[in-house]
Design goal:
The complex is a heterodimer of chains A (185) and B (112).
Chain A: H1 3-23, H2 27-47, H3 51-72, H4 87-103, H5 105-110, H6 122-133, H7 138-146, H8 148-169, H9 177-184
Helix pairs in contact in A: 1-2, 2-3, 6-7, 7-8
Chain B: H1 2-20, H2 24-46, H3 68-99, H4 104-111
Classes of the chains: A mainly alpha (185), B mainly alpha (112).
C-alpha cells in the first residue's frame, strides 16, 4: 500500500481515539485512550521516514502517560465532576468548527501537494552537511551544528518549565505531593 | 491533500475539547491533541514521495531524502511539549488542593 493510504488509516484511528478520550467519563480510560493518539503519531513518523522523531515521540508518550497517571489517578481524583449537559454550547461549537474546516479547504489546495516539499532551505544542508559537520545524520547536523542556538534555547525552556513545576508543587512537609517524597528521604 | 484535511480535523477535535469540556484534565488532554496535530502537520509537509530517511548512506549526496529541516524543528517542539504538560499538571494539582474540584466553572466562582 502507498504511504498516503497508511497515513489516512492511522489518522482516522487517531481522530476516533481522541473523540473517545474526550467523551469518556472515566478519567483513567481517557488518559489511556490519549495514548492511541500519541503512539499513532509515532507510527506516522515512521511512515514519513522521520526515525529520530518516532523514537522521541514514543518516549514522550510514555513519560506523559506516567506523569498524568501519577498525578491524577489517586484518592478521589479519578471521579469526573458531574456536569449538566450543555447541548446548545456543544452544537454551536461543532457547527462553527465544521465551518472553519470547510473554509480552510481552499488553503490546503494552495499548499504544496503531499509528497512534493519545497525543499529550498534544506538543500544547502543536504548537499554540504556531511562535509561541513562530519555528521552522517543530517537531522543531528542541523540541531547540533547549524541551529545549535535553537537547541540551547530549547534546553533553557525545558529547564525553566521543570523549575516552574517544582516551584508550584513545593509545599510544607505535612501535606501535598512533595511532602510524601521528603518523608522517604 | 486529504491527509492535510484529516490532520486539521484532529486539531479541530482538540479545539472542541478545550472549548466545551469543563474538567481540567480533559482540557490538558485537548491541548496535547492540538500539539500532536501541529507536529504531525509540519512533518507531513516535509515528506518527499519515495524518499528515504535523512541519513547519508555513503560519501556524497543522498539525493533521495526527505526534508530534514522540519524534523529538526519538531524534535525541539516535542521536548518543549513535555515541559508544558508537566507544568500544566503541577498547576492543576495545586488548584485541586485549593478548591477541591477540577470543574473550571466552580473554580472561577470561588476566586471571584
Amino acid at each position: 500500500m502507498p504511504v498516503e493510504t497508511w497515513l489516512i488509516f492511522i489518522l482516522g484511528f487517531m481522530i476516533l481515539g481522541s473523540i473517545i478520550a474526550l467523551e469518556l467519563k472515566d478519567l483513567l480510560s481517557a488518559v489511556i485512550s490519549i495514548g492511541i493518539v500519541g503512539l499513532g503519531v509515532s507510527l506516522a513518523f515512521l511512515f514519513l521516514q522521520a526515525l529520530d522523531l518516532a523514537i522521541v515521540q514514543f518516549l514522550f508518550e510514555i513519560f506523559a502517560l506516567i506523569i498524568l497517571v501519577r498525578a491524577f489517578i489517586g484518592k478521589e481524583y479519578h471521579i469526573q465532576e458531574p456536569s449538566r449537559s450543555h447541548i446548545v454550547q456543544s452544537v454551536v461549537t461543532i457547527v462553527v468548527l465544521l465551518l472553519i474546516l470547510v473554509m480552510s479547504i481552499n488553503m490546503f489546495k494552495a499548499l504544496p501537494s503531499f509528497g512534493h516539499p519545497i525543499f529550498s532551505t534544506a538543500k544547502h544542508y543536504v548537499e554540504n552537511g556531511g562535509r561541513e559537520t562530519g555528521a552522517a545524520n543530517i537531522v543531528t547536523a542541523i540541531i547540533l551544528d547549524y541551529r545549535a542556538y535553537d537547541t540551547l534555547g530549547e534546553v533553557t525552556v525545558l529547564f525553566t518549565a521543570i523549575l516552574g513545576a517544582l516551584t508550584i508543587l513545593r509545599t510544607k512537609k505535612s501535606n501535598g505531593l512533595a511532602g510524601g517524597d521528603n518523608e522517604a528521604n | 491533500m486529504i491527509v492535510y484535511i484529516l490532520c486539521f480535523t484532529l486539531f479541530l477535535v482538540g479545539i472542541y475539547g478545550a472549548l466545551t469540556k469543563r474538567d481540567l484534565i480533559k482540557i490538558i488532554l485537548s491541548l496535547g491533541i492540538m500539539g500532536y496535530a501541529v507536529n504531525l502537520m509540519i512533518i507531513l509537509f516535509a515528506y518527499k514521495e519515495g524518499g528515504s530517511f535523512a541519513i547519508l548512506v555513503k560519501d556524497g549526496i543522498n539525493s533521495n531524502m526527505v526534508d530534514p529541516l522540519p524534523q529538526a524543528l519538531i524534535l525541539t517542539s516535542i521536548v518543549i511539549e513535555l515541559g508544558i504538560t508537566a507544568m500544566l499538571v503541577a498547576l492543576s494539582i495545586r488548584l485541586f488542593q485549593k478548591y477541591k474540584t477540577f470543574d473550571i466553572t466552580k473554580i472561577r466562582r470561588l476566586s471571584g
